[in-house]
């Protein structure tokens, strides 16, 4: 029985040349069945591209071309069982076959041989051969995408038997067959031709024809409609916004020479650099006479629908990092509103998790203050100037971070809603952040108002320390003094409830 041609060539130390994936598929199948290792085969380089499906029953397109030259070491061909290759590997081999490299066929056969020997890691990107295989397939897919995007068809005069549209492209890899199938599906029965330096394809509306090279460049292509396209391109080109580096990054330089607009872009970019940028701005920017009317940034903002629920608030960025918003807690409403509202800075770690104000260490100390001042916590409305926990990581813990002024101002919207709902007679501001939010002034200081009462918008405002400050004070005497100021402030707030509701200076 005669040996297959591929096996005979390998056994005789001859060059095994293939011109398409289909031919390589047939030869590789013969070599694997004969047990010929990769090092016993010398593969020839590619002359033209083809396509095929490895190990399918159909014959390879174009037949086999096994020229004889270049002796190599003698092959040892023990007979092997038929190889079963997964579809994913076959697809990748066929895709990588379009990658232009002198050793592509030898490399693909080595991958196939290793798979047959049980080295299935060869398909993994972590394997050296697998990494190269993935890289080759990726490069071919990228070239297909670029050819889809940057190929330009020129319309030709209607002639019998001639394609209506002609395009020239210079691909870096052998992707013409795949791209041709793409345009067959896209352009219907319209005839066209794509020419490259290596080969050409012609679609007559019903059949796709493959030929050798029919053109040498795009210089001879002309299109009457191209002048209209270039006129349009010039009209939309804005020299005031040109960015040459961005244009080059979006479209690789090797494609520009064959694009119609590639011939005019360099001069337009040069004109922009030499002054057209300024002229473009002057022509398009209107100038109106008249006095400039100053307006604050707040008044210049457009009217936007405000959130109706605290959990939906996106007025600042703190919501992204908190577990949940922490609303105030206590009596509210026209019949049972709290006479005293206590305002802190922001929720802490435990408040953020529980969704309730003052349930952590600061809350426990505040309970002691209420007890000393003989004030029932249930009669008080407790809330914070900022409703989301602002923190920074420290090991595995979340450490409190003071809110920025813009975050306090953003959350003042919710404090105003609470004031309207609770309608307290006295507000106790615990700490500097709460005081600034209640009074709406960023310049007010804690030391100027500590332990005192002021009138603001028809209410009394009393300032005391925040419980967390008392917890942080290292000196025992200072801690006792701060605790005492808090107790006295709560007592003062309770006493102010007895004061008549007469207007006072804000």
Task: Give short descriptive properties of this protein.
4 domains; 5-stranded mixed beta sheet; 18 helices; iron; DNA repair; alpha/beta; 40% helix; 506 residues; single chain
Q: What is the CATH superfamily label of the largest domain?
A: Uracil-DNA glycosylase-like domain
Total count of domains = 4
Provide the gyration radius in Å: 40 Å
Uncertain stretches of 5 or more adjacent residues:
46-78, 282-286
Number of helices: 18
Distance between the termini: 111 Å
Structural class: alpha/beta
CATH class of the largest domain: Alpha Beta
The helix content is 25-40%
Q: What is the fold named in CATH at topology level of the largest domain?
A: Uracil-DNA Glycosylase, subunit E
Which strand order do you get reading across the main beta sheet? 3-4-5-6-7
**Beta-strand content bin:** 5-15%
Globular, elongated, flat, extended or rod-shaped: what is the shape? elongated
Overall mean confidence score, pLDDT: 82
Largest sheet: 5 strands, mixed
The CATH architecture of the largest domain can be given as 3-Layer(aba) Sandwich
Question: How many distinct beta strands?
Answer: 14
Kindly describe this structure.
- The protein is of the alpha/beta class and 506 residues long.
- It has four domains: 5-140, no CATH class; 151-211, no CATH class; 224-278, no CATH class; 310-496, Uracil-DNA glycosylase-like domain (Uracil-DNA Glycosylase, subunit E), CATH 3.40.470.
- The protein is built from 18 helices and 14 strands.
- The protein has a five-stranded mixed sheet, sandwiched between helices.
- Helix 1 crosses helix 2 (21-33) and helix 13 packs across helix 18 (476-496).
- The longest helix is centred in the first third of the chain and has 23 residues, at 128-150.
- It is elongated, with a radius of gyration of 40 Å.
- It comes from Telluria aromaticivorans.
- Residues 68-81 have a biased composition (Low complexity).
- Keywords: 4Fe-4S, DNA damage, DNA repair, Hydrolase, Iron, Iron-sulfur, Metal-binding.
- Belongs to the uracil-DNA glycosylase (UDG) superfamily. Type 4 (UDGa) family.
- Residues 331-483 form the Uracil-DNA glycosylase-like domain.
């Amino acid at each position: 029985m005669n040996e297959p041609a591929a096996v005979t060539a390998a056994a005789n130390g001859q060059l095994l040349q293939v011109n398409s994936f289909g031919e390589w598929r047939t030869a590789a199948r013969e070599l694997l069945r004969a047990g010929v290792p990769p090092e016993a085969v010398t593969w020839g380089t590619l002359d033209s591209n083809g396509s095929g499906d490895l190990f399918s029953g159909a014959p390879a397109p174009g037949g086999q071309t096994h020229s004889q030259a270049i002796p190599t070491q003698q092959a040892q061909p023990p007979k092997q069982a038929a190889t079963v290759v997964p579809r994913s590997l076959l697809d990748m081999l066929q895709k990588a076959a379009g990658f232009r490299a002198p050793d592509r066929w030898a490399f693909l056969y080595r991958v196939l041989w290793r798979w047959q020997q049980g080295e299935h890691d060869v398909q993994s990107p972590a394997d050296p051969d697998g990494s190269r295989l993935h890289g080759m397939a990726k490069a071919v897919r990228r070239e297909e995408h670029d050819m889809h995007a940057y190929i330009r068809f020129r319309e030709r005069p209607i002639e019998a038997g001639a394609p209506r549209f002609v395009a020239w492209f210079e691909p870096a890899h052998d992707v013409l067959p795949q791209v041709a199938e793409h345009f067959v599906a896209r352009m219907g029965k319209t005839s066209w031709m794509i020419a490259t330096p290596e080969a050409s394809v012609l679609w007559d509306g019903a059949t796709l024809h493959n030929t050798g090279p029919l053109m040498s460049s795009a210089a001879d292509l002309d299109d009457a409609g191209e002048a209209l396209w270039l006129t349009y391109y010039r009209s939309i080109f804005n020299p005031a916004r040109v960015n040459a580096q961005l244009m080059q990054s979006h479209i690789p330089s090797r494609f520009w020479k064959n694009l119609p607009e590639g011939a005019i872009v360099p001069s337009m970019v040069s004109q922009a650099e030499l002054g057209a940028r300024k002229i473009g701005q002057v022509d398009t920017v209107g100038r109106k006479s008249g006095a400039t009317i100053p307006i604050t940034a707040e008044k210049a903002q457009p009217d936007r629908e405000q959130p109706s629920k605290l959990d939906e608030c996106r007025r600042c960025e703190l919501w992204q990092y908190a577990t949940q918003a922490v609303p105030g807690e206590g009596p509210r409403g026209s019949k049972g509103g709290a006479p005293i509202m206590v305002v802190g800075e922001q929720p802490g770690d435990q408040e953020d998790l529980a969704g309730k104000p003052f349930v952590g260490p600061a809350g426990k100390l505040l309970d002691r203050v209420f007890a000393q001042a003989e004030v029932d916590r249930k009669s008080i409305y407790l809330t914070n100037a900022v409703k989301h926990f602002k923190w920074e990581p420290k090991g595995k813990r979340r450490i409190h971070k003071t809110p920025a002024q813009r975050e306090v101002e953003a959350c003042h919207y919710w404090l105003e809603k609470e004031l309207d709902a609770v309608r307290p007679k006295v507000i106790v501001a615990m700490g500097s952040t709460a005081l600034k939010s209640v009074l709406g002034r960023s310049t007010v200081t804690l030391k100027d108002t500590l332990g005192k009462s002021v009138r603001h918008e028809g209410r009394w405002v009393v300032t005391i320390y925040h419980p967390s400050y008392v917890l942080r004070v290292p000196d025992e005497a200072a801690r006792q003094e701060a605790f005492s100021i808090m107790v006295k402030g709560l007592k003062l707030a309770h006493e102010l409830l007895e004061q008549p509701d007469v207007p006072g200076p804000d």
